[in-house]
Amino acid sequence: MNQLVGDIRLSCLSSDHGVRALLARLMPMLPNWGVTDEDRGTIELVLAETLNNIAEHAFPVHDDAVIAVHLRTTTDRFHVAVHDNGKAMPGLTLPSGTLPDHDVARADLPEGGFGWFLIRSQTDALEYRRDTSGNHLSYSIRLSQSAQPEGDFCCEDLRNAQL
Amino acid sequence: MELATKQSGGTVTVTVAQSRIDSAAAVTFKDAVKAAAQDAKDRVLLDLGAVDFVDSSGLGAIIAVMKGLPNGMRLDLTSLRPPVEKVFRLTRMDSVFRIYPDLATAQADMTK
Fold it and tell me: In chain A, whose CA is at the least distance from the CA of B89?
């Protein structure tokens, strides 16, 4: 039932343009795995939040560090594992991701603090681990419709693609 | 940042002509929309019909534009595509902005 549909390793540089380049490369592949437009939108948003957070907070100075991303699609889930060798999460725990209060005067509206809320609201099995090689973050996203590969598309030649 | 601006009555309609308002684009987006909105009297209408991706940085930039407008001037949104609408819905910002399904409906609504 829960068969592996796609598996790819990508990497990006620790900058917002690096993150954009990784997404530009990944997103056109997902239809080949039978991932619907709606699920693609969720995946793109959650990955962008994840990788931009790492680029900004794990590498506050360096834009040229490498963030490694391992993505797998099974029939009903999209699995994400991210590794970087940047700074640890403060307190070695993930942010709570509380939604900032929106029922306030215009001048007091939040302009940030949405990233971890969005990640937490769209993912399951969220795990963070710090070891001597750096930060390891993983989670999965439930697909609204079952993924299945189309035709004879093979992801093998795309493995380890460097950006 | 590619924007097209059109003034009609007290409303300035700002149409975003690129597909992403992401972390890489957020700052230039914010500055460009603020500049484009200079001549608005009552409201700024931001047409996002060409935008298929907004992340939390892009959302923050749109909120910052609204907060920078003079008191009493609105920032309304129109033509959100499904992935963009989802970001506003999840963060409850759909209750902060007036969001119209299309440009004609937005321009016809004269409610203060």
Answer: A118
